[in-house]
Amino acid sequence: SARLPDYMIPSRFIILADLPLNANGKLDKKALTALLVHSDEASSAQDEAAKGPQEQLLAEIWQTLLNVERVGRHDNFFELGGDSILALQVVARARKQGM
Known about the structure:
Helix content: 40-55%
Distance between the termini: 41 Å
CATH superfamily: ACP-like
Structural class: mainly alpha
CATH topology: Non-ribosomal Peptide Synthetase Peptidyl Carrier Protein, Chain A
Largest sheet: none
Radius of gyration: 15 Å
């Protein structure tokens, strides 16, 4: 159709001089995610820390699985580099911790 569904419309754009490449000349997705996280940290005035034990536990799980230093209450799992497989791992770890 002539219109994209809402979920496919980018919520923001980040301008890069070059895309990070790995040793094989392919896109380095981890480095690209790190650039996104760094960009988020630069605009952290809107960040709000996790509140309560359940949010803190989920934030710790996200930080571990996504390999990021900080997760805010309003962060988007998929924008931080998450995918469906990692989402399943989040659920499994949360259940293991009693959530």
